[in-house]
Amino acid sequence: MKAKPVVCTMAAMLPLSSSFLHQPQVRRSAAAVLLAVATLASQAASAQPDSPPLPAAAVPSSWSQASSAAPDTLAQWWDKFNDAQLSALVTLALQANPSLRKAEAALQQARALRDAKQGSLLPSLSASGSAQRSQTDSQAATSSFKAGLDASWEPDLFGGKRAGLDATEADAQAQQATLADAQVSLAAEVALAYLQLRGEQSQLTIAQTNLASQQETLQLTDWRAQAGLTTSLEVEQARTSVEQTRAEIPSLQASIAASQHSLAVLTGQAPTALTEQLGSAGPIPSAPEQLALAFPADTLRQRPDVRAEEARIAAALARVQVADAARYPSFSIGGSLGVSALTLAGLTNGASVLGSLLASVSWPVFDGGASAATLRAQQAALTQAQASYQSTVLTALKDVEDALAALRGHRTRLQHLQSAATAAELAALLAQQRYASGLIDFQTVLSTQRTLLSAQNSVASTLTDLGTDHVRLYKALGGGWQAAPSSAPSSSAGQP
């Protein structure tokens, strides 16, 4: 069983004259409307739930592995790598990436929906006109012309419409933060792909250098075999080492091409658009070791994903208020003014004038518990938004701590690997010289060459890891976007 809401209607349909507004019927109708509004106004405060604070989250006072200080400017953190090509690629991606344009369009949509909701708070006015010509067998043809204006307004006595506007405004703010989060992620993704490309190119250079050295060793071994100083076994071992190193080169070249394709797509271009531009190997970019970190609470305020969750809580709270206001009476005030004449010219002189004033009250007396269930559903949605906020805060804190731990570990690892690579390079050179002099066997030469290749690759890989750690830290700190002034609704919204 579905009960209809109780509807009370007060109307007056009166001919207009110079004293129309002073007619007793109009005054009585207006007084009745005002009395109904005043009687229920005292209940408006109870219909507005208080705004709860953001849910508590365990935010530490400082980071565990770094001293907090005034934060550096993070809006364009990629410039800290001092790599012009990296900066150019990130800038291009932020301008041309299709996914980012999609997020920008979603923001425009959210703002348009907010503006549409704002318009519903204001009175509406519409105009109409008609012309009619009729004729019967016994009478001559007659014409009639009509024109009129209709106005209506629903006072937001219990704040339901205002809360609806607040919800769409919060949705727009959440979408704006989502756009900023997309910018943060995109800048980091471009930087990571660029670092991977430079790391792969560095490993390719290392492989090619070692291949040349191994080919020299193979040639030396072949000469020694021809002179009877060694056996064909050592020749074949040297050739095996050469072919194994040569086999790594196509795989690295394929990885380099894939990284180039990724960068091109991220910047909104065809996959092969950057092949020539990024074809030459370059150094692996490195960021300054010293990084001034904000306090954890400041970091959370900087991160756009946390801001988005805050806005979603505000939107959910506003929708709770909308559902609560729906349980109370709604009011509607309308009026019309029209003129009618037998000729078109008569509409402005001597026309019949007719006006009406209508006020109505609608109160849902019984709806089977639907409005109460809707309110509970919105309250549950608010609880979900609060839990999502807490989860996002904890994830943000974890991202920073993980990046700091990785940075610390890779810095220490790089120091040891660089020392190892220097020693391996010297050992390989000495082994080759002593083998040429016949002082050591060929197995020692092979071992030192393999060790050198492995150590140099590890250095290149760790340099890349160190750069990616910086990128992930900048992303975790919320860097890569700049706050822009939002298009807020007019403060006069809802005021007739």
Q: How would you describe this protein?
A:
A five-stranded antiparallel sheet has the order 1-5-4-3-2, covered by helices on one side. Helices cover about 60% and strands about 10% of the residues. The chain has helices at about 25-40, 85-95, 100-120, 160-225, 230-265, 295-300, 305-325, 370-435, 440-475; strands at about 5-15, 125-135, 140-155, 330-340, 350-365. With about 500 residues, the protein is α+β, with helices and mostly antiparallel strands. A hairpin with a 7-residue loop joins β2 and β3 (about 140-155). The longest helix has about 70 residues, at about 160-225.
Question: What is this entry, summarized?
Answer:
With 496 residues, the protein is of the alpha+beta class. Helix content is 58%, strand content 11%.
Topology (elements, then pairings):
Elements: E1 6-15, H1 24-41, H2 84-96, H3 98-119, E2 124-134, E3 142-153, H4 160-226, H5 232-266, H6 296-302, H7 304-325, E4 330-341, E5 352-363, H8 370-436, H9 442-476
Antiparallel strand pairs: 1-5, 2-3, 3-4, 4-5
Radius of gyration: 38 Å
Helix content: 55-70%
Largest sheet: 5 strands, antiparallel
Q: Could you tell me the strand content as a percent range?
A: 5-15%
- What's the oligomerization state? single chain
Helix- and strand-based class?
alpha+beta
Strand line-up of the largest beta sheet:
1-5-4-3-2
Could you list the spans in which at least 5 consecutive residues all have pLDDT below 50?
Answer: 1-51, 488-496
Order of helices and strands: EHHHEEHHHHEEHH
The average pLDDT score comes to 80
| Tally of strands | 5
How many H/I helices? 9
In angstroms, what separates the terminal alpha carbons? 38 Å
